[in-house]
Design goal:
19% of the residues lie in helices and 36% in strands. It has three helices and nine strands. It is globular. The structure holds cobalt (II) ion.
């Protein structure tokens, strides 16, 4: 691999939007016996989050928090909840971004790298470019 290339290391997490994170937590924890973390409130991102850990991947449950949650619209369209985004882990987010822009794929928002809900640099890609699926890239 050339030094200028960027690499996707793995699927970091699959995020599921939920209406009630407490009852969702119970199902994953008690019915399935999964390794479920603690619910965290992230008011600056407008969500409550909870990670369910597996050896190679996490599932992230997200519930809207506050009035301007970025997942409110999604839950209006999907009242039972549903898969909200897939997060791919990249080794260098700025290089990944360069490549994406070069190929004409659209980055959401103003196109700049932001600090995501987990304190790492992220960008979100336009679902129209990925068959209706929201893709998050996270540096890790
Ligand atoms: Co995410």
């Amino acid at each position: 691999m050339k030094a200028t290339e960027t690499k996707i290391n793995k699927v970091n997490h699959i995020a599921i939007a939920v209406k009630d994170i407490n009852s969702a937590k119970k199902n994953w924890e008690q019915s399935l016996g999964c390794n479920v973390g603690k619910i965290k409130e992230l008011p600056e991102h407008g969500v409550k989050v909870l990670f369910i850990s597996f050896p190679n991947i996490k599932i992230e449950l997200i519930e809207p928090l506050g009035n301007n949650s970025p997942i409110e619209k999604f839950l209006d369209k999907n009242p039972k909840g549903g898969i909200h985004h897939i997060c791919l882990e990249v080794n260098d987010i700025n290089k990944a971004k360069e490549k994406i822009v070069k190929h004409g794929t659209n980055i959401l928002g103003d196109g700049s790298v932001k600090t995501g809900a987990h304190g790492k640099p992220v960008i979100f890609l336009n679902p129209s470019d990925f068959s209706g699926t929201l893709i998050e890239l996270e540096e890790g």
